[in-house]
Amino acid sequence: MEINKILLDKLLGQAEGNPRLRLNMDLRTSADDNSQRMLNALLPGTVVPIHRHPESTENVFLLCGKIVEVIYDENGNEKERIVLDPTVGIYGCVVPQGAWHTVEVMEPSVIYEAKDGKYGEDGSETFDAFLKKDIEDLIEMEHRSGSMEVITPLYVSRMLNVPLEEVEKVMRCAQC
Length: 176
Known about the structure:
There is one protein chain. The strands form 2 sheets. Strands 1, 2, 4, 5, 6 and 7 form a 6-stranded antiparallel beta sheet that branches. The termini are far apart. The chain has 4 helices and 8 strands; from the N terminus they run H-E-E-E-E-E-E-E-E-H-H-H. The model has no long low-confidence stretch (mean pLDDT about 85). By secondary structure, the protein is α+β, with helices and mostly antiparallel strands.
């Protein structure tokens, strides 16, 4: 298979028709391949949840477009922004194993990404799921102690040292 402009344009066109504004193309040669190698067509406005891969680094190479890889600390605070733009000679990055990260899409882009482990079996998790468990554990502990009847997002934010907007988002989704 040749990875060329025709293929990238086709993927970007298919991403436009996808409600998520992105599309993955699996590049593995067999279902028995225990890695993840793919082209990922991304359009501005797509939302890639903050996530991490505890068992693998993630290699990201930008083939066209412009993106920002955003790295967070354990509490969801932004730590680093890596602007990938092949027109200025910045082609890719390696996201460290276990680092929380997401991508902001500045213009229609296609990345090649690779990491170890089969999709769904590699230990990857979203920050919201991780934070949701911490919030549930805190609320359960407070209810067991009987010290608080109502637990507010501000209280959770302060207790877990996580940005208030992240806590509010997770608590809103938990009530859905």
